[in-house]
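User: Hey, my collaborator sent me this sequence without any context and asked if I could get a structure. I don't really work with proteins. Can you help?
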Amino acid sequence: MTTVSSSHRKSQPWTRNELILAINLYCKIPFGTIHIRNPKLIELATLLGRTPGSVSYKLANFASIDPTLDRKGAAHTSKLDRDVWTEFFNNWEEMAYESESQMAALKKEPLHDADGNDIYPENHVGDDALRLVKTRVNQQFFRHMILSTYDNRCCITGLSVPDLLVASHIVPWAQDKKNRLNPSNGLCLNALHDKAFDRHLISLSDDFKVMVSPRLKEYREVTDDAGYRFLMESEGKEIRLPRRFLPDVGLVRRHRGLSSDPYR
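Assistant: No problem. I've predicted the 3D structure and written it out in structure-token form, which is a compact way to encode the shape of the chain:
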């Protein structure tokens, strides 16, 4: 692990590359854990040669910029803070991959995909292969970001078994390149509700209550198993909303519009 002396770096201005890594961390830890005792924050501080207090304060600065937060953090942001934040949030695909690559290089570790498999970009030759690498790394970033945003719980049922949780896209990955990694296009769902959401058997209302499609209700005539009841019991239930990165209502409406059976 490469580090820089904190006594040398702590008073130095933050660089663009350091800010990218700080935004990466901001996106991947639960909002309530932005404090100097967080092991992930301490790790980044060590890698950058800065104090945990310095990193914590920088994350609080980002909270003051974050438009999805009602409660704002520290207000002493620099122009570079705001510029890098805008760059990151306007170009999720490139910036997520750049920040993940920089973090891996600092740690002298390989990149990882969403299943935890090691990825070595240098072993993948050609544009198509490198695009696949970027996709796999970015999907890992999206999963970490969405699960942490929802405190590692299904937003419908509260289930908190990591292996059964999915970072679901509201508008599918293939249908909206701009919003593929936008956290407001994500929900943390258990595997069954994720599949039902993906197949448009359930959706959300504008006030974030679960809607059940007429198509799913038709199955009442032929099945009454536990899985079906589990889905049906969700109807009308308001999801657990995160403290930041709230679902985008426009994207929720698009999801409902993609159903072959209009929700009523």
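In plain terms: DSSP finds eleven helices and six strands in the chain. You can pass these tokens on to your collaborator as they are.
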